[in-house]
């Protein structure tokens, strides 16, 4: 009836909820954190974020110290969340890395496993078997915060 008011629930708004893009470029040398067997820190996450999408592009072909070097892409605690172990030398200049056999060079639709992911852990690469001692990967993260302290920054 006339005069009745509808009460709307409060909407939480964060001042900078817009999407942001961060770039992490890794030039592999074989040193700790840059291709030695173990973690390659990519992005540090604080709080909760929505990873709108992650794009990984190889600008210089990866090389290995000895045969069998692999690299995986994931989160702290789930190191193959995005990509299982991929032979490092299969990442060739111009490739997008969205699966274990990267061959896409012109363009690709971002696969479901690389977009719209609620994240609260750091993004990492994991080198196994042998060191990756050359090449360059570019990691583009488009994200927005979900919690008031949500933040993603290059590691």
Report on this structure.
The chain has 155 residues and is mainly beta. 0% of the residues lie in helices and 50% in strands. It has strands at residues 20-27, 38-46, 49-64, 70-75, 78-87, 115-119, 123-128, 132-145, 151-154. The strands form 2 sheets. Strands 5-4-7-2-9 form a 5-stranded antiparallel sheet, with no helix packed on it. A 4-stranded antiparallel sheet has the order 1-8-3-6, with no helix packed on it. A hairpin with a 2-residue loop joins strand 4 and strand 5. The radius of gyration is 19 Å and the shape is globular. The termini are far apart. The model has no long low-confidence stretch (mean pLDDT 91).
In short:
The mean pLDDT is 91.
The helix/strand class is mainly beta
Shape: globular
* Mean pLDDT value: 91
Share of helix among residues? under 10%
Rg:
19 Å
Q: Which consecutive residue ranges, at least 5 long each, have pLDDT under 50?
A: none
Number of helices: 0
Strand order of the largest sheet: 5-4-7-2-9
Portion in beta strands: over 45%
User: How many beta-strand segments?
Assistant: 9
Distance between the first and last residues' Cα:
58 Å
The major pleated sheet works out as: 5 strands, antiparallel
């Amino acid at each position: 009836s006339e005069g009745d008011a509808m009460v709307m629930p409060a909407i939480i708004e964060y001042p900078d909820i817009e999407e942001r893009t961060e770039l992490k470029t890794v030039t592999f040398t074989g040193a700790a954190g840059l291709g030695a067997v173990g973690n390659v820190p990519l992005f540090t996450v604080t709080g909760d974020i929505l990873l709108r999408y992650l794009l990984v592009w190889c600008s210089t072909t990866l090389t290995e110290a000895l045969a069998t070097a692999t690299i995986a892409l994931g989160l702290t605690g789930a190191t193959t969340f995005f990509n299982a172990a991929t032979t490092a030398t299969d990442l060739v200049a111009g490739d997008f890395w969205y699966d274990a056999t990267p061959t896409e060079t012109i363009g690709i639709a971002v696969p479901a496993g690389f977009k719209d992911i609620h994240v609260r852990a750091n993004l990492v690469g994991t080198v196994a078997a042998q060191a990756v001692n050359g090449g360059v990967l570019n990691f583009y993260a488009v994200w927005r915060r979900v919690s008031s302290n949500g933040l993603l920054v290059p590691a």
